[in-house]
Design goal:
Elements (H helix, E strand, L loop, with lengths): L2 E3 L2 E6 L2 E6 L6 E4 L12 H10 L7 H4 L5 E7 L7 H12 L7 E7 L8 H8 L1 H6 L1 E4 L8 E6 L5 E5 L1 H4 L2 E7 L2 E2 L3 E2 L13 H7 L2 H5 L12 H12 L2 E9 L5 E7 L3 H14 E3 L5 E5 L13 H10 L5 E5 L9 H7 L4 H9 L10 H11 L4 E4 L5 H6 L3 E3 L2 H12 L5 E4 L6 E3 L1
Parallel strand pairs: 4-20, 5-6, 5-10, 6-7, 10-13, 15-21, 16-17, 16-20, 17-18, 18-19
Antiparallel strand pairs: 1-4, 2-3, 8-9, 11-12, 13-14
Length: 429
């Protein structure tokens, strides 16, 4: 549903939801992308098999693998909702259809996130895959694990996990959703930032790149971050991708396979059509970061906060619901967020050259941009109120308390907009 008026709304939060009674019906505008409620057109395994059987721009994966000795499958880490327990067995089956002896390595793309734990690997892939397959978790901070492949269009260095450069066949899986500075996730993003070195990720995410007017949600053309990512994927010869789209219940509602750009573009068109919504100005904007796993820390939540800011006019109050079960989400990010006012944080980051980019500074930069214009009230079980205040945000123990505070700030007649899943709404116009 695009937009409506309700008296009770549910915000995805952790593994459940937060419910908020808004009072009389019509007291708030609820805006959702259609993707949240779209029903799967077929069972998930059928959708994935169809995509694998009819790839875009490439032969079937089984044909590509026929004469290969080795393959690497790059896959998402624990911070993404990729349904790898479904997709990975199907990818492996397709890889081995005509070449049962091919050597396969599953490479977990962590970017600069912490390492995925053994329990998280089992939760992600299932016991059968973990027990039978070779799985390597990428470590961006281990320089010896990467090789240098020159520079990218932006001038950033390109250092990538050597496993993707030494295999005969490179495959990637991921899921597509709007991304607050790369345009959309999925496709090329498995390589950069997924399996690149710390230095490469930092330079790709430099202050100048993030500050570009083209480095925004749903923008690909002219986006310097996206352009570097595409070049990185092409340079390591990604031969085949499998990407999916998910609804609000994390069910597969679409799948695309084949060429790293063409298949991704098809998926992007599908997601864009179901997520774009005209911008409306609200005095108070309430949102969540899609629930687990995306709201497990504050570092991931600028996605929803950026969407809310687009709907919050010049000085609207943002209420962000983020469970933060895994804490703030990064020592550098936390330190930066506590290092001064939003204006001071932005000024400090603007002075940092691209090759000296601090890990995680990009999320601090985006938060600073939002906080310079908007009061942000954070509802979180995972972070204490004193810490939230030091992060330049306003703590609230419950969603009802947050709304009461926002109404005191903006007045009893304030226009309230609720975007239950801010990750899956693209501001348009």
């Amino acid at each position: 549903m695009a937009a409506d008026a309700r008296d009770v709304v549910r915000i995805p939060y952790g593994h459940g939801h937060l419910e908020l009674a808004l009072g009389e019906k019509g007291s708030a505008r609820v805006i959702e992308g259609d993707i949240a409620s779209v029903e799967p057109p077929a069972p998930a395994d059928e959708l994935v098999r169809r995509a694998l059987e009819r790839p875009t721009g490439t032969p079937r994966l089984s044909e590509l693998a026929r004469d290969a000795r080795s393959a690497v499958i790059v896959t998402s880490d624990h911070t993404r909702a990729m349904p790898s327990s479904l997709t990975m067995p199907l990818l492996l089956e397709e890889l081995r259809r005509e070449n049962p002896d091919i050597e396969v390595t599953i490479l977990v793309a962590t970017g600069l996130h912490r390492a995925t734990t053994p329990d998280e690997l089992r939760d992600r892939f299932g016991d059968a895959v973990v027990d039978r397959e070779r799985i390597v978790v990428h470590d961006a901070f281990d320089a010896s694990a990467c090789v240098d492949l020159g520079t990218l269009p932006s001038g950033a260095c390109f250092q990538v996990n050597r496993l993707v450069t030494t295999c005969d066949l490179l495959v990637a899986e991921g899921f597509i959703e709007p991304h607050f500075f790369a345009g959309f996730s999925g496709g090329r993003k498995s390589i950069l930032p997924g399996v690149c070195s710390e230095r490469t990720v930092k330079e790709n995410h430099s202050y100048r790149a993030i500050a570009s007017e083209r480095a925004r949600t749903a923008v690909l053309a002219g986006n310097p971050i996206h352009e570097d990512m595409v070049e990185a994927a092409r340079r390591v010869s990604v031969a085949f991708i499998l990407n999916v789209a998910l609804n609000g219940a994390k069910q597969v509602v679409g799948a695309w396979a084949g060429d790293v750009e063409r298949a991704h573009e098809e998926g992007v068109a599908f997601v864009r059509r179901l997520t774009e919504r005209p911008v409306e100005a609200g005095d108070i904007v309430i949102t969540g970061n899609g629930g687990h796993p995306l709201d497990q820390n504050l570092y991931q939540s600028p996605k929803a906060a950026s969407t809310a800011a687009a709907f919050a006019g010049e000085d609207g109050v943002i209420i962000l619901c983020c469970s933060c079960s895994d804490g703030v989400g990064g020592t550098h990010f936390q330190e930066l967020m506590q290092s001064g006012t939003p204006e001071q944080i932005d000024e400090r980051l603007a002075a940092i050259p691209a090759d000296q980019t601090i890990p995680e500074q990009w999320c601090a930069q985006i938060y600073a941009r939002i906080l310079r214009r908007h009061r942000l009230i954070l509802v979180s079980d995972g972070l204490g109120p004193d810490l939230v205040a030091r992060l330049n945000m306003t703590p609230a123990p419950t969603l009802a308390d947050a709304l009461a505070l926002a109404r005191r700030l903006k007045g009893p007649d304030a226009r309230v907009i609720v975007i239950p899943d801010g990750v899956n709404v693209v501001p348009a116009g």
